[in-house]
């Protein structure tokens, strides 16, 4: 595919791509003002304001008009 060939031209380091586009958030559930046991969660989220534009290609004629 053309895009895969374009990407191979660059030396992307996966960790750098992740840190450029994402943040790590931590959250926990609270109960009576205290963190609930076993409720700590770590999530990777996109940085605010990012908009991705990606071409889509259908491999067959089975599609639905949106």
Give a topology summary.
Layout lengths: L1 H7 L5 H8 E6 L2 E2 L2 E2 L5 E6 L20
Antiparallel strand pairs: 1-4, 2-3
Structure description:
This protein has 66 residues and is α+β, with helices and mostly antiparallel strands. The chain contains 2 helices and 4 strands. It has helices at residues 2-8, 14-21, and strands at residues 22-27, 30-31, 34-35, 41-46. It has a two-stranded antiparallel sheet with strand order 1-4. It has a two-stranded antiparallel sheet with strand order 2-3. Strand 2 and strand 3 form a beta hairpin. The model has no long low-confidence stretch (mean pLDDT 84).
Provide tags for this entry.
two-stranded antiparallel sheet, 24% strand, single chain, alpha+beta, flat, 66 residues, 2 helices, two-stranded antiparallel ribbon
The helix/strand order is HHEEEE
Order of strands in the sheet with the most strands? 1-4
> What share of residues is helical?
10-25%
Radius of gyration, in Å, reads 20 Å
Beta content: 15-25%
Largest sheet: 2 strands, antiparallel
Shape: flat
Oligomer: single chain
Q: Count helical runs.
A: 2
What is the count of β-strands? 4
Would you kindly provide a brief summary of this structure?
The protein has a domain at 2-46. 23% of the residues lie in helices and 24% in strands.
């Amino acid at each position: 595919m053309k895009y895969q060939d374009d990407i191979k031209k660059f030396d992307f380091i996966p960790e750098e791509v992740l840190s450029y586009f994402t943040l790590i958030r931590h959250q926990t559930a609270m109960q009576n003002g205290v963190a609930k046991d076993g409720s700590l969660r770590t999530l990777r989220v996109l940085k605010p304001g990012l908009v991705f534009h990606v071409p889509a290609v259908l491999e067959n004629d089975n599609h639905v008009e949106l």
